[in-house]
Design goal:
Layout lengths: L15 H17 L1 H4 E10 L5 H11 L3 E7 L3 E7 L6 E7 L7 H6 L12 E9 L2 H8 L22 E3 L9 E5 L6 H4 L3 E2 L4 H16 L6 E11 L4 H11 L3 E8 L4 E7 L11 E7 L3 H4 L7 H9 L2 E9 L3 E2 L2 E2 H12 L16 E6 L9 E8 L8 H14 L10
Parallel strand pairs: 1-4, 5-7, 9-12, 13-17
Antiparallel strand pairs: 1-5, 2-3, 2-8, 3-4, 6-7, 9-13, 10-11, 11-12, 14-15, 16-17
Helix pairs in contact: 1-8, 3-7, 10-12
Amino acid sequence: MDLINYKSLGDKENSELFNEYLPRIYQRRADSGLDELVKEMAGVVIQLDHGDGISYLAELAAMGPYRLTDTRLSDTHRIFILASRPEYPRLIVLEPLSATYTDEITEWNLLYPLSRAKPNARYVGEIYKTSSVGDVRAALEPQNVRFVYEGDQQNSFYCRDHLTFTFLSDYTYNRVGYVDVEMDDFDALGFGERLTLAPDELARIDAAAALQVEHGIDGLVLGIDHLATRILSGDRESAILEYLTMVPYYFWGAYNIAEMNSSTNVTRNPNVTDEKVSPARVFTANNTPSFINSFDNLPMPTEDFVRNFGRRMHHMAYTVLDGHVATEKNVDYVVRELQDMGTEFLAHVVGECKDEPNLKQIFSKASPFSLLITEYVERCHGYEGFFTKDNVAALTEAAGSAERYVHGHVFD
């Protein structure tokens, strides 16, 4: 793909600075060898509060395709490794061993009114495959990308011989990781000794997975479709350019969602034919900062979310297999069955799938353990985009209604 001459999609206008530096970043990636060094997404990482691990694994087993494959014990965490299909990214869940555990995540979460109750719960970031973590650091550190070194963090997970992470981004509060061995080689990764879960813990997880089979949705929810971070209005372009500095993705396009006073900005991996092998990374931001928006009082659920929870991942989207169960579209069937299983949703399924390519989408309520919303997306007749404006407006409005914080008319 000719990234330098690619014309991005959408109607969101970018600044001259963005338009100048985007092709320069692509060129520097090629010149530094990063495009050859870094490949597809290998995993995603989520940290929880102490005591929430098994409950969250059961939630994941009921709501999606991920199943526990191994558990490790480090000096500070229980580390759960989950997989869906072998070619899709792994899901790694970190649970601190102590309720008093504190790291950078804790410090950030305590700054915001709606994340304080779960001070260690946060989506951490993505891990990308590479041929050499050392070569990645050598390529990116001259570009002012900071990496975690031994002793920098309380959690040794972020700095291993074959696994390295950047510092938390100033724009997204997410990290980017790189791994140069197979993600299933836990001994080489140095995750710690193997831990056998208690029979009652395994039983809870197995029972949740069995519900999918019982309700006929096993196999209908596939891998991760995209991951969407919400950021402040003024950080939109910097967050995108920073991410594209570190991974071999490209700026697919950006669309204004006028009804919600925001824009949706999509980056994609140009080297995969199945998005679930290396899911898209989406950045959503308000069109105007809250203090300027106060002149016009337009909706701003995206900026409100950031002010309430901090810059962070908002939702993780799963692809639903395109098709029907009887006369019902798969996503409608999946949602109805999940509701019978106890999953709560923010609104109804939006979008239509008739004779033309389109997509249907829905948001769940945020997890009480990870604070992440789960989205379900069914692309009909080979629809290639990530949203329609009407769909995104409806989903954003529904999420905004559930993410309000009212205290003296502040942050609401």
